[in-house]
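I keep forgetting this: the sequence line spells out the residues, with the fold written below as integer tokens. I include a record here:
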Amino acid sequence: MKKFLSNYKSTIILLVAIIVGAVVGLIFKEKATVLKPLGDIFLNLLLVVIVPLIFLTITTSVAKMKEPKRLGKIVGTIILVFAITSVIAVLVGFLSTYFIKLVNPEDSEKIVEVFDEEAVEEEEELSIAERTVSLLTVNDFSKLLTRDNLIALLVFSVIFGIAMNMTKEKAEPVLNFLNSANEIVNNIIKIIMYYAPIGLGCYFAAVIGELGSSIAVGYLKTFVIYFVVSIAFYIVMYTLYAFIAGGTKGIKAYWRNIIPATLTSLATCSSAACIPVNIEGARKIGVPEDIAETTIPLGTSFHKDGSIIGSVFKIMFLVCLFGTSLATAGEVFGVIGIALLATLLVTAVPIGGGTISEMLIITMMGYPVASLPILTIIATIIDAPATMLNVVGDSASSMLVARIVDGKDWMEEKKDLKEEVKETVNV
């Protein structure tokens, strides 16, 4: 019980603060807006740290990358499997929310006024090519230092990190400086998060006070639907992946050994904390060690089914909230693409990655930055089931990688190897 409380303490405190804020907003209604400045403090602190957080985390991560000591076939297969399963996850998330309104605001114009948005759709006049250029690049270095050009900052950070990697030992002083600065920024994030219960609670009270109970009901509906979708995805999709990888034997092996990883993910809410038990489970399933020890650690950073589905839910929540149209195929594919990019581009960031992902969603969708806490609240309430899907999805992916790399008899080969070892020991 103590371990459970320790792992979930911050989440529980945030949830309690959000619930208290909701109650205050429902009781006092528009009078609750007196608390909005306390919520704005939290929002402003997060927005100030976004630019250095993105630059430092992405740059240092890329600069420290080393070539994997694995066969190119294994790494290439891992990338292929991650890409396919991620696309499947985002499609499931979209189909789960497209026909359901997660939130039903009575007056979209009032929503826009509440979040102080002057021009939600001001970029619609740009062509696709012009929008792409303005999204990926800027014409002045100073513009990288604003939150309006986060994608351009991300691109620059990756290029800067690659350049440092190419410079090798001569870049060590700069890398050491950036690593130190990154640690400082990460601690700033931790300090800000100490204020999160007060900030989010007050922000939520003010929002509900102005918008009424519809947004509170929206959060409850979002959690329930996400929970149902995650359970269905957990049972159906991973059973399917196990069958594709190893037939009925694969299904039996998967479900016989996946429960420890499932329980650990729910208990810790940390994908990284589940790496040892996940690798051990994959070995027991029959996945070769070189594949298990490569796929699962990489998957912890770059393959997160639960987070991708969660990104779709965040986007669709804002789509419903602001009354955005999804009438054309381009708009639909835009949501799907943004959900993938916002998750896959920043999931390797150890601290603050969620905030960066949410800011990318807001930026690319053209929504006001004041809606950031809304996405933070959604991330909090779906954290446990999302982590579960992130973790067990890596085990299923390792089976698919083994199937492609070692052929359809990969499980039999593993069994034969065990029997040979047993016979050798007996002799």
User: Anything to note?
Assistant: Residues 2-426 form a domain with the Proton glutamate symport protein fold (CATH 1.10.3860). The CA atoms of residues 24 and 205 lie 6 Å apart.
